[in-house]
Amino acid sequence: GYHCEPYNNPADFFLDVINGDSSAVLLNREDPEGEARETEEPSQRDLSLLEKLAEFYGNSTFFRETKAELDQLSGAQKSKKSIAFKEITYVSSFFHQLKWISKRSFKNLLGNPQASIAQIIITAILGLVIGAIFYDLKMDSAGIQNRAGVLFFLTTNQCFSSVSAVELFVVEKKLFIHEYISGYYRVSSYFLGKLLSDLLPMRMLPSIIFTCITYFLLGLKPKVEAFFIMMFTLMMVAYSASSMALAIAAGQSVVSIATLLMTICFVFMMIFSGLLVNLRTVVAWLSWLQYFSIPRYGYAALQHNEFLGQNFCPGLNVTANDTCSYATCTGEEFLENQGIDLSPWGLWRNHVALACMIVIFLTIAYLKLLFLKKYS
């Protein structure tokens, strides 16, 4: 029943009516003789005005139609549990999202020297230190022990250096949830982009540097294929350990908890790696644990690659079936004592096992991100 002047903004007019400041309200307050009711308190006037407007709206057909529509929507939403509001659509393709996620992750990697350049420098320094300690391994019984020790160290070092991979998804968890529910990208494009731009280079480059430095300082088997097999083995160990770190850390909110779980797992894996205990002497009801040990596969592959065809008894004619009573003379004897198959499959089955573990752990990490409670 209030009249809005032609020059007045309707939105301002509505607010003025509600606040009781409109000229139309003042006109409505006057009595038929044109005298204003000054005896009424302002607060009571405003209250009566609001009650009048509320009562007028409550008795209107517009209120009844709106209420019926809202009740219908509310009932449908309760039955569907807000599925319609949580459905995420994407306007860009998978490869477009993959491109920009990889580009952003790679720029972040280069812009954080503490996690990239520092790790490479530390790897190079550690390689020089190991090369100085085990410099120029001899072909004798002491050389067998030193070779076994340094190969074990190389394997376990790859495992423990991969613990830093737990930060890959933990640090950006809130950012990932925000961008995912906003429809920026798919889980698959985010997951693959982080692997291509962050995980792969940060595990591959240190393995290459470590192998190039230590291999020649240690004086390992002088064969080209042995050099590249060692490099490939260290890379596979680093990838499998990093994949395990991602599987444990995906969905976690605290880095320290994921790091603690990783360290405990690697400590138990070290026991079944083949150096601390001869795996053939482990009781049957515990021996199955060796098949879940990442260092075991890497250590066995490195031993097969290094010891096969080596002679550690100078002056002994191993082709004449001579025997050495005081020590292990050939690499084959050492491998047999460790229970390692001497055939080519005895080498490559370790890499196949590591590849299977990589696929399994990455699948677990992806599923944990996919089913993460992003709307809590």
From TrEMBL:
A Pfam family it matches: ABC2_membrane
Name this polypeptide is given: ATP-binding cassette sub-family G member 2-like protein
Organism: Equus caballus (Horse)
Membrane topology value: Multi-pass membrane protein
Domain ABC-2 type transporter transmembrane positions: 97-307
Signal sequence interval, chain numbering: none
Cellular component terms per the entry's GO annotation: plasma membrane
GO molecular function: ABC-type transporter activity; ATP binding
Entry's transmembrane regions: 117-137, 204-220, 226-250, 257-279, 352-371
Compartment(s): Cell membrane
tRNA processing recorded as keyword: no
Primary subcellular site in the record, as a coarse category: membrane
Keywords: ATP-binding, Cell membrane, Membrane, Nucleotide-binding, Transmembrane, Transmembrane helix, Transport
UniProt-listed InterPro entries: ABC2_TM, ABCG_transporters
